[in-house]
Design brief:
420 residues, alpha+beta, 30% helix, globular, disordered N terminus
Length: 420
């Protein structure tokens, strides 16, 4: 829970340390008004400091902060602490085998008031011919000084690595969670989607970041009529194409098939970057833990994989039941785990996460066939709602197809950019 009051420093006494322990001469975006936290407003001469996460205690504070930021947000879904810990751990996450990242915490009088991650993916820059780094996992109280200090620290770290542009919020790359929510705050985020307070947009844009891409999420909660156009487009069996469930018992081979399709089908998308073997294997293992096998579809042409469709039960419904994100308490009592397992059995919504067809087979009704199969299976299994996305704002063909199955656009996310 938030403290009774977080004391606000004066502009003159703000201190900032970068990864090398050095202080810049200034912080852009001077603090101009008192911030209200838990009903208290107060100015103070206490310094604001931003420092790299350097200890286990720092790492725990980094993970803990969202529980304070979202204490009064009924739409927020608490993550599992174990999952967050693994995600930011260089010894566990496969991103660190080819990329690098660092975490920063902002503190007032030892009170943690913000966090951010800066990451550098050389594969992204090789793919796009750019010189960009990323920021993500951004959280802050409603105070421009805190946001400015955090974003400056991230930019300084990236600049020291030779980068000239900062993009975000992007957690490592577009293969992971990305985008700042700018509408649809009243509904909870679905699995692997971001959620944030409305004021984050003001903080980022006040720092000088400008939006470069919109991402859309779509919602469908009524039985689609499965219009004749979809059925006609999906009549592909006579052309040697078959659909089958992805087999979790043969996970390693299925992951390899899906990886090949993914890296080909998404290659030309905005912000795309190939997933490494280690990243794809890690993602496959995590998703298999919650996947409903009948919602995982592989398309094959004469036995050769040419497309896949990935939908996941919305495990966020179950995560809400855990509350504090801990699966085990007092070192041995698995209360949270029991709640999670019970919650997973009761999930009634799902997210349509990915749909891809290899070049050369696109535009032949294969994607429509996989959508049709997914919706039919979901209806039979009693699912009551589905999020589709995210999709790119300029992917007109896909967005129109989604609209034609009665889905409504209900959330928008922005990706920002800034020269550094």
């Amino acid at each position: 829970m938030p403290p009774d009051a977080l004391r606000v420093p004066s502009t003159e006494d703000i201190g900032l340390c970068n990864a090398a322990g050095q202080r810049p001469t200034s912080i852009s975006g001077a603090y101009a008004a008192p911030v209200v936290v838990a009903g208290a407003v107060e100015r103070s001469s206490t310094r604001l400091e931003v420092t790299p996460v350097a200890s286990d205690a720092d790492r725990e504070a980094f993970i803990d902060l969202p529980w304070r930021i979202y204490a009064h947000d009924p739409a927020w879904v608490p993550p599992l602490r174990r999952e967050v810990s693994d995600f930011i751990n260089p010894d566990r996450h496969p991103f660190y085998r080819h990329g690098s990242a660092t975490l920063f915490l902002a503190r007032w009088r030892s009170e943690v008031v913000g966090r951010v991650m800066a990451s550098d993916d050389p594969h992204y820059n090789e793919r796009h011919g750019t010189n960009a780094g990323m920021f993500g996992l951004f959280e802050s109280i409603d105070d421009p000084a805190v946001a400015d200090a955090l974003l400056t620290a991230a930019a300084d770290w990236l600049r020291a690595r030779g980068r000239s542009t900062m993009l975000g919020p992007i957690e490592y790359s577009t293969n992971y969670t990305c985008g700042l929510l700018v509408d649809g705050f009243e509904t909870p985020p679905r699995i692997l989607m971001n959620h944030n307070p409305p004021y984050y947009r003001r903080l980022l844009e006040g720092h000088g970041l400008h939006a470069v891409k919109e991402l859309y999420a779509w919602w469908i909660d009524e039985a689609p009529d499965l219009r004749p156009w979809l059925r006609r487009a999906a009549r592909i069996a006579s052309r040697g194409v078959t659909l089958r469930p992805i087999r979790k018992r043969d996970l390693a081979a299925e992951v390899e098939r899906a990886k090949r399709i993914y890296n080909e089908a998404w290659y030309d998308n905005w912000g795309s970057v190939r997933m490494t073997d280690a990243e794809f294997e890690d993602l496959g293992r995590h998703l298999a833990e919650i996947a409903d096998e009948e919602l995982l579809i592989m398309a094959e042409h004469d036995g050769e994989p040419i497309g896949f469709s990935l939908s996941l039960p919305d495990a966020n419904e179950a995560f809400r039941a855990v509350g504090d994100g801990r699966l085990v308490r007092w070192g041995f009592v698995p209360i949270g785990l029991v709640k999670l397992l019970i919650g997973l059995r009761r999930v009634k919504t799902f997210r349509y996460l990915a749909l891809g067809v290899r070049p050369g087979f696109q535009g032949r009704g294969i994607a429509e066939a996989m959508v049709l199969r997914t919706l039919e299976v979901a209806l039979l299994k009693g699912y009551t709602g589905c999020e589709m996305g995210w999709t790119l704002d300029d992917n007109t063909r896909v967005n129109r197809a989604i609209e034609r199955v009665n889905a409504k656009r209900y959330k928008t996310y922005l990706v920002y950019e800034q020269p550094i």
